[in-house]
Amino acid sequence: xxxxxxxxxxxxxxxxxxxxxxxxxxxxxxxxxxxxxxxxxxxxxxxxxxxxxxxxxxxxxxxxxxxxxxxxxxxxxxxxxxxxxxxxxxxxxxxxxxxxxxxxxxxxxxxxxxxxxxxxxxxxxxxxxxxxxxxxxxxxxxxxxxxxxxxxxxxxxxxxxxxxxxxxxxxxxxxxxxxxxxxxxxxxxxxxxxxxxxxxxxxxxxxxxxxxxxxxxxxxxxxxxxxxxxxxxxxxxxxxxxxxxxxxxxxxxxxxxxxxxxxxxxxxxxxxxxxxxxxxxxxxxxxxxxxxxxxxxxxxxxxxxxxxxxxxxxxxxxxxxxxxxxxxxxxxxxxxxxxxxxxxxxxxxxx
Length: 351
What we know:
351 residues, Rossmann fold, 11 helices, 11% strand, elongated
């Protein structure tokens, strides 16, 4: 089995690694501005290392590390409205501040992939960085891996629909029980899943009714108060800013959809196929499919192909206790690792 490479994402981490190890052999340096780092690249050992989207002081420094066994993947971010290899996941503020998300969406429309090979490479590098950061979040080095449950469903589920509140309660129950909710990052059922996780900050399930009632005043994306209602709920229940974590994985393919307000982490992709496959891959504890359209139906079959050992289950109606149908084992109050011989994760669908 290959040994995981050490990833260095700041000049401080690079210098600390050098002080401890005396070399930079076999590391991955991601998106670091090296122009002000006091390192003699003609001397320090770098064999087997990879420098992704790093800025060197000059071409001689970049050439020096390549001649001595390192790989340099150039930074293609110049003139693009996005970092080609971001060092971490996005937040809501990252994407909405200064209109970054809208600028990227305009760029995507003007530069369709794969019509321009360099743009195609840049987008794939960006999406690779999103995948890397996602795994750092759910499988932290030296920490316990998160128990990921995916929630998939239609973006057209209205905020005032009973299905919306049911998914909110599902997200709340899963998070309270120690699971980590991941959604497709759009409106509708996906927003509801992230909202449920977020509301655990308030410490009581009674907040679900109040939050959903506020959002229901602007039930559709087209409603002029859609964003304001989300901001009001977020402000009301943000609390200390601790807990209530969840991940949203949207795509610029659906750039017309607003950024979800309630996910604490956002992995936004250019390639929708990679995004869908990745979400299903990381949902080790199971996937819940809420009502949706053709896209949701496709994802059900995609999940069956990716995880053929899952046990599909059709549930005839929505239930606030639905979380119990996708756990691996035991009570939702005690999400212990699955003992040998116990049931596998399930795929749960509502109709």
